[in-house]
């Protein structure tokens, strides 16, 4: 989970900095871009809160078969995204982009850790050997 949050957070922060989209409360319209500025009012796209919620949901969906946990993770995404739009902090597209980044990163990294093979270094008489395990 922490690895997925770190990767998704890094991607989101880099995109916010590179895109520089104004937040809705600035009343400059959804097409106003001012990239490469360290200004939170210009860091609307993608939504960081939606990225975190999406990452949690992605990891939960990849790791759990419990419908209750999956439902809670889905509800988290909907509530967080809705709150960011309702509070005039993000455009709908900001939330969709952040959620997509989070779900893709969380689900992808969680599934990749479930790989069916691995490389192992094992001690052996006379040294160490490299083995593949399936």
How does the SSE layout of this entry go?
Blueprint: H1 2-19, H2 48-63, H3 67-86, H4 92-112, E1 118-124, E2 127-133
Helix pairs in contact: 1-2, 1-4, 2-3, 2-4, 3-4
List keywords for this structure.
mainly alpha; 4 helices; 10% strand; two-stranded antiparallel ribbon; elongated; 2 strands; 134 residues
Instruction: Count helical runs.
Output: 4
Q: Order of SSEs, N→C?
A: HHHHEE
**What is the percent of helical residues?**
55-70%
> Residue ranges: pLDDT <50 for 5 or more in a row?
none
* Structural class assignment: mainly alpha
What percent strand?
5-15%
Given the C-alpha coordinates, what overall shape results?
A: elongated
What is the average per-residue confidence, as pLDDT, rounded to a whole number? 91
Number of separate structural domains = 1
Distance between the termini: 24 Å
Explain the overall architecture.
This protein is mainly α. The chain has one domain (2-133). The protein has helices spanning 2-19, 48-63, 67-86, 92-112; strands at residues 118-124, 127-133. The longest helix is centred in the last third of the chain and has 21 residues, at 92-112. It is elongated. It starts with a helix and ends with a strand. The mean pLDDT is 91.
């Amino acid at each position: 989970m922490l690895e997925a949050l770190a990767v998704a957070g890094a991607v989101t922060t880099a995109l916010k900095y590179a895109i520089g989209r104004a937040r809705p409360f600035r009343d400059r319209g959804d097409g106003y871009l001012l990239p490469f500025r360290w200004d939170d009012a210009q860091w609307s796209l993608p939504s960081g809160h939606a990225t975190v919620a999406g990452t949690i949901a992605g990891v939960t969906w990849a790791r759990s078969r419990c419908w209750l946990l999956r439902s809670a993770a889905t509800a988290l995404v909907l509530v967080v995204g809705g709150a960011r739009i309702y509070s005039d902090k993000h455009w709908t597209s900001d939330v969709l982009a952040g959620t997509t980044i989070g779900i893709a990163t969380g689900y992808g990294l969680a599934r990749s850790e479930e790989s069916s093979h691995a490389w192992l270094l094992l001690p052996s008489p006379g040294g160490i050997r490299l083995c593949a395990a399936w």
